[in-house]
Amino acid sequence: MKKILVIGEILVEIMADSIGDGFLQPQALTGPFPSGAPAIFADQAAMLGQPVAIVSAVGDDDFGHLNLDRLARDGVDISGVFVDQDRPTGSAFVRYRESGVRDFIYNMRHSACGHVNMTASVETLLETADHLHITGSSLSSPEFVKLNLEAAKRVCERGGSVSFDPNLRKEMLSADGMADAMSRIVAMTNLFLPSGEELTLLTAAKDEPGAIAELLTRGVRAVVQKNGAKGAVYHDAVEAIAQTAFPVKEIDPTGAGDCFGATFISLWLRGFSPARALELAAASGAIAVAEPGPMEGTSDLPALEAFVQSHRGTS
């Protein structure tokens, strides 16, 4: 099977036990949980038996080893993860407000995963990957943008493929060189997976049909628009396929989009029909939101198939 490469942050996530505003007073916390969008993506792909490697860095601390142990246990190739002796593992503290909005406190820029470490193992992964998955949350600095662009270029030159989940805030596009970098990434993207309004974030067209048509004429082979509880829609040059969401009680949405994307991409690379890949990806996202902790809902293929079977007619 084709090997996926993903580049970006590995974190621990620590969750507040109570609902409220921020972290301005002592409170009970649960965690640490393995986290980071690329790490969640990689873990879900590996759970499906897909060869997948991650390029990142962790500190030589308990948080770092927690992540490495989990990823290795689930089958992720961690040869490209640098263990930094001087910087700590990245972290994210999260608390839910009454509205469902989440407050985050991140330590990424000054942590191990905030820096690129070009080891021999990383070079090997860049030369052997069949597919590159880019997530916008990992484009946090010029050096990570540069590495993702270089990896995409190498994969494309070998006849491989690229997927892109923008996961971008509008203000990120105003950073020096970011708009140009995004345009270059889209030009190499085969499969585009925006969430909601991200569909029009990188297009001149600002309506949904126009944006999809524009992306397909720019070389994107397929667009999978993620709409959370409203489901998802697959678009290519010949068809559009809608998939409603499976009804579950939402406990923790962090990582659900990454599980969805990892499932769809893995099955797409294996030649599953778009409709079947979309259905199983929706199941993956539903299972993920029903579990506390960003990586605790990753599932293998039999579990996804059983979930779909048990929920036939309820989505």
What CATH architecture of one domain would you give?
3-Layer(aba) Sandwich
The CATH topology of one domain turns out to be UDP-N-acetylmuramoyl-L-alanine:D-glutamate ligase
- How much strand? 15-25%
The separation of the N and C termini measures: 31 Å
Please give a structural write-up.
The protein has helices at 37-47, 62-73, 120-128, 142-157, 178-188, 208-217, 256-269, 274-289, 301-310, and strands spanning 4-7, 11-16, 29-35, 52-59, 81-84, 90-96, 102-107, 131-135, 161-165, 191-192, 222-226, 232-235, 240-243. A hairpin with a 5-residue loop joins strand 11 and strand 12 (232-235). It is globular. It has a nine-stranded mixed beta sheet with strand order 5-4-1-8-9-10-11-12-13, sandwiched between helices. The chain is of the alpha/beta class and 315 residues long. The longest helix is centred in the middle third of the chain and has 16 residues, at 142-157. Helix 1 crosses helix 7. It has a domain at 1-23 and 30-120: Ribokinase (UDP-N-acetylmuramoyl-L-alanine:D-glutamate ligase), CATH 3.40.1190.20.
Keywords:
alpha/beta; 13 strands; 315 residues; 35% helix; UDP-N-acetylmuramoyl-L-alanine:D-glutamate ligase; four-stranded mixed beta sheet; nine-stranded mixed beta sheet
What's the helix and strand layout?
Elements: E1 4-7, E2 11-16, E3 29-35, H1 37-47, E4 52-59, H2 62-73, E5 81-84, E6 90-96, E7 102-107, H3 120-128, E8 131-135, H4 142-157, E9 161-165, H5 178-188, E10 191-192, H6 208-217, E11 222-226, E12 232-235, E13 240-243, H7 256-269, H8 274-289, H9 301-310
Parallel strand pairs: 1-4, 1-8, 2-6, 4-5, 8-9, 9-10, 10-11
Antiparallel strand pairs: 2-3, 6-7, 11-12, 12-13
Helix pairs in contact: 1-7, 4-5, 7-8, 8-9
